[in-house]
Amino acid sequence: MVEEVREEVKEAEPWEPIESKLVFGSIVAGIIAMIVLAAIINVFILTKY
Amino acid sequence: MAEERIEERKWYSGMFSTEDWWAFWIGTLFVILGIIAAATHTELTGWIIKFNTWVDISKAMGPAHKGIMSPIAALVVSYIIFTIVTLIGAWAMKWKLRDYLAAWTIIFILTVIAYIIGKNAYISAPSTKWEKLGIESGLQLGGAHYILALIIGLIIGNLAPKRFKEFMLKGARPEWFIKIAIVALGAKLGLKALEAPGYATHLVVAGMCATIAAYLLYWPISYYITRKYFGFSREWAACFASGISICGVSAAIATAGAIRARPIIPVMISAIIVIFATIQLIVYPPLLTKFWFNEPISAGASLGLTIKTDGADAAAGAILDELMRAKAESKGIFWEEGWITNSAILTKIWIDMFIGVWAFILAVIWVTHFERRPGEKVPKIEIWFRFPKFVLGYFFAMFIIMILGFSGALSLKDLEFGLKPVEGALRKFFFLLTFTSIGIVTDFRELRKEGIGKLALAYAIILFLIITPLGLFIAWLFHHGMEPLPAK
Fold first, then answer.
1. Number of DSSP helices (H) and strands (E) in chain A, helices first
2. What's the rounded Cα separation, in Å, for the pair A42 and B70?
3. Is there a contact between A9 and B454 if contact means CB atoms under 8 Å apart?
4. Nearest CA to CA, how far is B376 from chain A (Å)?
5. B40 touching A, CB under 8 A?
6. Which residue of A2, A4, A49 is in closest CB contact with B482?
7. What are the distances in angstroms from CA B166 to CA B18, B102, B136, B169, B171?
8. Average pLDDT by stretches of 10, chain A with 49 residues
């Protein structure tokens, strides 16, 4: 088990463009979701508290 | 072979063979019993054992409906019925029944002991209740029974002889117990919604929105850091990122399945997740109570966004609920029990639901880009297979009670008669069974194993420097200003 962990680290594949797309796309989606949904929640719900 | 197995699976596969489904069945069974009791005014749920704050030990426990039987009879009946229903589940899941029964019985007894000791008035009662209880001093350790159960479990998990610990693992099922409790919590939210429909809806919606934002940010940041700075391979980084970002052990396993990672990977990551979740369960509630008392619902929601196992999250939510309310009571503010726990669980439940979608997205990316298997498609039903089924029980319980209450089919008083023992006494007891079990399955000795250090270091750095601060911010952004409703 321990050896497998070590081997994995040695054998890490190079970063590929699709990984950049996945990471970048998810972060952008997350930031947009956070801004839009927070605006909705703050305007329609949290103002009541 | 794997493809054939996927092809053979039907939408109903696993309905009687997984812990997740059995949490749904058992939790829903008790909710339905509660509804029948409400409709017929029969004592179908009143026998459930309830533990009280006590000075005189003869009053430490009793049936949920006072006077229908003696405390000992309620304890024995509860043991027999809980044992039968969980044994049926264990039988259906093909566990070794004799081992399960023996280990479950020991866990049941230890949990009862922890509950009774922890609820002693001198240990747990807040100063506002001393006069009523007839005492003049006390430690005011609200939630002491939770910590006591956890300590008992941790002693078994870390100090007991290996054979005994392995034996106890046959009955220590924290995720199963907590999922049953969470279904019962759905009944509580349903009853609360009848009293305050607007507030309950706001909590559900805010929790869902916070979760979407959180996990879309957690996953890529965790994946990027582990790939770029810790040199993890893709399959390690993907499983790790899902585990630390979404729903812990089940996310790591689901991701491993989706990208066809080797089985060892989710096993190693799961060990780390369980250990850190237990640390968070002990540390976060008192810290949040001390430093974020003015935002109790945000604090609860932050637990769901940062603690990565259902058991530890719900357990931490229950402790936070106790600590926050105890602190509030010392200031003359009286909050209803359960809202803070619910805020912790709602964010976690939404996160749990997204793993199906995320595992599907990862499976598509892996098949089409990394493994390059032209023509192969990932069936959309995978989303359903990954969906946590106990969540259906939570929402079923909530909605059926709301429908019955709002339609006038049953009055709130009737519903409370049948369901209070389920959403109160039963839920709290299964919460406590979870605490004992979490302790048993948490083995801090895992951290000493050579080779796991890097994994643990990456987990600690990302959890405490990325997930936790971001979770606190997002929880605040979506819940700031909300407070539990005043106690009646």
1. 2, 0
2. 51
3. yes
4. 18
5. no
6. A49
7. 21, 12, 44, 5, 10
8. 55 89 95 96 91
Number of structural domains, chain B?
1
Considering chain B, what is the average pLDDT of its residues? 90
Shortest Cα distance, chain B CAs vs residue A25, angstroms: 9
Is residue B7 included in any domain, yes or no?
no
Q: Which domain holds residue B90?
A: 15-479
What are all long-range contacts of B457-463, with beta carbons under 8 Å and residues at least 24 apart?
A: B457/B230, B458/B225, B458/B226, B458/B230, B458/B232, B458/B240, B459/B240, B459/B244, B459/B272, B459/B273, B459/B276, B460/B276, B461/B225, B462/B221, B462/B222, B462/B225, B462/B226, B462/B244, B463/B244, B463/B276, B463/B280, B463/B306
Considering the domain boundaries, does residue B287 fall inside one? yes
Residues of A in contact with B266 (CB under 8 A): none
Percent of chain B with pLDDT over 90: 66
B6 located within any domain: no
pLDDT of residue B29: 98
Inter-chain CB proximity B478 and A38 less than 8 Å: yes
Given A5, A18, A34, which is nearest B213 (Cβ)? A34
Output the CA–CA distances (angstroms, integers) from residue B400 to B147, B180, B311, B396, B397, in the order listed.
34, 17, 25, 6, 6
**Residue B320 dihedral angles phi and psi, to the nearest 5°:** -60, -40
User: Which has more pLDDT, A28 or B256?
Assistant: A28
> Burial level of B368, CB count in 10 A (0-12/13-18/19+)?
middle
* A29: closest chain B residue by CA: B216
Compute the nearest-CA separation of A41 from chain B (Å): 6
User: Does the global pTM surpass 0.90?
Assistant: no
Rounded to a whole number of angstroms, the distance from the CA of A26 to the nearest CA of chain B is 6
Is A6 within 8 Å of B451 when comparing Cβ atoms? yes
In a domain, B3, yes or no: no
Tell which A residues from 10 to 29 touch B, by Cβ distance under 8 Å. Answer: 11-13, 15-16, 18-19, 22-24, 26-27, 29
